[in-house]
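Hi there. Long-time user, first ticket. I'm pasting a complex I've been working with (about 528 residues overall). I'd like to know whether the download I got is complete or cut off, because the file seemed smaller than I expected. Thanks.
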Amino acid sequence: MDLLIPDIGLLFWMVVVFGLLYFILSKFAWTPITESLKEREDDIQKALDMAEKTRIEMAKLQADNQKLLAEARAERDAILRGAKETADRVIAESRDRATEEGNRIILKAREELQTERQAMVAEVKREVIELSLDIAEKVLKRELSDKKSQEELVKSLVAEARLN
Amino acid sequence: MMRFRIHTFFLSIVLFLSTLVSVNAQHEEHADHNAAEGKKKFNVGDMIMHHIKDDHGWEFAHGLTLPLPVILYTQDGGLDVFSSSHFAHEATYNGYVKEHNKIYRAGANGEADKSIKVYDFSITKNVASLLLSAVLLLVVFFSVRNGYEKNKGKAPKGLQSFLEPVILFVRDEIAKPNIGPKYGRYLPFLLTLFFFILFNNLLGLLPGGANLTGNIAITMTLAVITFLIVNLSGNKHYWAHLFKPTGVPVALLPIMIPVEIVGVFMKPFSLMVRLFANITAGHIIILSLLGLIFIAKDLGGSGMGWGVSPLIIVFSLFMNLIELLVAFLQAFIFTLLSSMYIGSAIEDHHEADHGVGYEGPQAH
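Hi, the file is complete. Here it is re-exported in full:
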């Protein structure tokens, strides 16, 4: 039963010691400790938030880069396509022009040829006419008795003419 | 570094447990002494009571007693201070007589005069242990505090990293969920309470240690402080719940109000008894186990005493491990319940879980 009766002296010391302990510890230990803990937790939270923000920004940046790259690629393709088209067009044009020029030259050559041939034909005609006239004149000049000598004469004349 | 600390921690536990053997030896000596003195039978009840009760002077082992100051106050004689060692040699000193661990004014014939009230403010074994634990708490937590200043922006080190999880446990697992957003005001008290009980429980487990948290005066002070904090910070919901419970028929009020009022006092009373009984019971069990050795010796001679010792050592080792658990558990429970009582006193929506409760489940 003695055990259950609080001792006045111990009660007194306990109140004094616990009270002092509470005041000293809360002022010099618990408050700084809990503040430091809170501060550190806030710091960690801040760092985590920062990391998350950076991650999002990085992702955005990467997406931007990707977009930029895609755009650049598209532009390059467009430029290349344009250049190819231009080149094709230029080639086609020059080919066309060359063909045209060639055709024109050929046509001109043909025309010239035609003219020359006509001139030649005309010349030949004139010479044939002259020759015929010559032959006829000679035949007429030389009265030939026989048919045989006539033919010989013609042959020789023709041979003469061919030499021309 | 951390590994080293952990190793030293476990090593100290092992060392502590090994000292139990020396406690054993110490009691052996005690019994031998008794036997030599008057061949009287070993009284296990007296031995246990001697160990769990307070004493003037701190007896670490038989014959090795640290004398402590005796401080007495009487209305007529005023203040008297002298060493407790004077009572070791003679029963009467300086007009005072010690009887069954209590000091009375000595009468004319040397008998105790119980008519004169003597206020005993002595630094007894428990008070010395209390002061020791206070110094220990201050040293430990000032060092932890310094750790936070020194390692600012760095990882915690040493004692700081050892105790930080415990401080965080009290804050995050005890104070925050039970008190709510206003926990900050009560946290210093809860931390002091937790570590005071824990340190004293552990000190009480040391061989020769005082049974401080198993003393009713100590647990009563703690419970009364909790009672005062709870009732002084109780808001209008708390008082309304006591005297005007919602949803209770008027006819039941004459029963309900006394029940609630008894409940207000029962809460700290249960805190007081729980800690006191748990710690005292633990000490009694260990001391009873050790006492079995001497009972065996009385029954069957010295050989029997030595014979049962190994088994008893194993049992008391086991009990000490359980006591180690209880030391933490009781500190936790006292703090947890205190924070729950504080939480229920400052809660804002008190009607939510009482009175109109029957409409609750149907409404949901």
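A couple of notes from our side: Chain A has a mean pLDDT of 88. The helical segments of chain A are 8-141, 147-163.
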